[in-house]
Specification:
16 helices, 13 strands, alpha/beta, disordered C terminus, 2 domains, 44% helix, Rossmann fold, single chain
Length: 383
């Protein structure tokens, strides 16, 4: 019987975000007769706790910086100790902190780009440095995976030599199933059943735009006051969000709540899911909401526009446009027939295109392909 391949799934942080949810889903669905997963995170957090509860061998080597040479030798010792066959790095920070150790030990690295580290709103020098970093990582990895076609193309525009295969994120539709028994989160949080509940469930960071959403919701309330905004998550801009709510006198209309694991239950409580990001690879939170049959409003960026077809299964707005976002929220809240259309089409979108088991099968085949090429000593894998 052929031995199992020991796969290191490497991630930048232990907090729950898109890449972290992807890793959790992937590890849960891996064929354990063929693969033995080990996880390395560069910070602790709820994801690490959940993996350990699942019985997955999970470790933390602490750093919050990409290309942090201070931890590279520790990572190398870890890889030798764990006898890893292949590494799957999720995101820039993860790959930048394992690539030297992996290359020095001859371990193949698969790099999934969940979203580029360079963006148009960055200072030109910062953006240039990050482009150079991504060029290095993508050229030295054995295989690159893009989570959406548009994310691959945005990479090729600035790194012409970039090559990757596209593997869309998948959702576990057994877990994210609106027909299964779920908790009453509205009752728990004291939200009246007759209120239209708008949900933001993401990290409170600049690129997710929680402050823009708060400003847009203030305008939306002026047109339709019978709404509540629930914002679930943590991050750098959480304190700013609290201050903004106070300044705008929205403390009774907006509920801030820390991150929680019962994501399907929270989604079930909502009437509308809003994701006003400045950029995305392929947003898992959006797919989870759609799998729960929720109407969605999101921004027209990278992978999001591959999921949301404007006026078919949701509404798209321009990033940073507060008035457009406010009007979209009001439109969904005040047009029940449109909302029902979005809900049904959202369910079909996930069912037909974003299945966790199919995603995992594809990635497993890529693991085997890269491993075979290593064992017969072929040149670097190119697609």
């Amino acid at each position: 019987m052929q031995r199992k391949l020991r796969i290191l799934e490497c991630i930048r942080q232990g907090q729950i975000g898109g890449g972290e949810s992807h890793l959790l889903c992937l590890v849960e669905h891996l064929d354990r007769e063929r693969f033995e997963p080990v996880v390395l995170s560069f910070t602790p957090g709820p994801m690490v706790d959940r993996l350990q509860e699942m019985g997955v061998d999970t470790h933390v080597i602490y750093t919050e910086k990409p290309f942090d040479v201070r931890v590279w030798r520790q990572v190398r010792r870890f890889l030798k100790q764990q006898k890893v066959d292949l590494i799957h790095a999720h995101g820039t920070r993860a790959n930048s902190n394992i690539i030297w150790a992996a290359r020095s030990l001859g371990i193949p690295v698969i790099y999934t780009v969940h979203g580029w580290s360079f963006h148009q709103d960055q200072h030109p020098i910062v953006r240039r440095i990050r482009i150079l970093g991504e060029k290095l990582l993508t050229s030295t990895s054995s295989l690159n995976i893009s989570v959406s076609d548009s994310n691959r193309e945005s990479g090729r525009k600035v790194i012409p030599s970039f090559r990757s295969v596209v593997v869309n994120n998948g959702i576990d539709r057994k877990r994210f199933n609106p027909n299964r028994e779920l908790k009453d989160v509205r009752a728990e949080l004291g939200i009246p059943a007759d209120k239209f509940l708008v949900l933001f469930m993401a990290r409170f960071t600049g690129h997710k735009q929680p402050l823009t959403l708060i400003r847009a919701f203030q305008k939306a309330l002026q047109k339709n006051p019978d709404m509540v905004l629930l914002m679930v998550g943590d991050g750098d801009e959480k304190e700013q969000a609290k201050q903004l709510l106070k300044a705008l006198n929205l403390e009774k209309d907006v509920i801030l709540h820390p991150f929680r694991h019962d994501v399907p239950d929270v989604l079930a409580a909502a009437d509308l899911y809003v994701l006003p990001s400045l950029w995305e690879g392929l947003p898992i939170g959006l797919l989870e909401a759609m799998s729960m049959g929720k109407a969605v409003v999101a921004t027209q960026v990278d992978g999001t526009k591959e999921v949301v077809l404007h006026r078919e299964n949701g509404l798209l707005t321009e990033p940073g446009n507060i008035d457009e976002l406010a009007n979209a929220i009001v439109k969904v809240a005040t047009e029940p027939s449109l909302r029902d259309q979005f809900r049904q089409n959202a369910l079909n979108t996930v069912k037909n295109r974003f299945c966790a088991s199919e995603m995992t099968k594809t990635i497993q085949n890529l693991y085997l392909d890269v491993w075979r090429k290593k064992t017969i000593n072929l040149p670097q894998h190119k697609l």
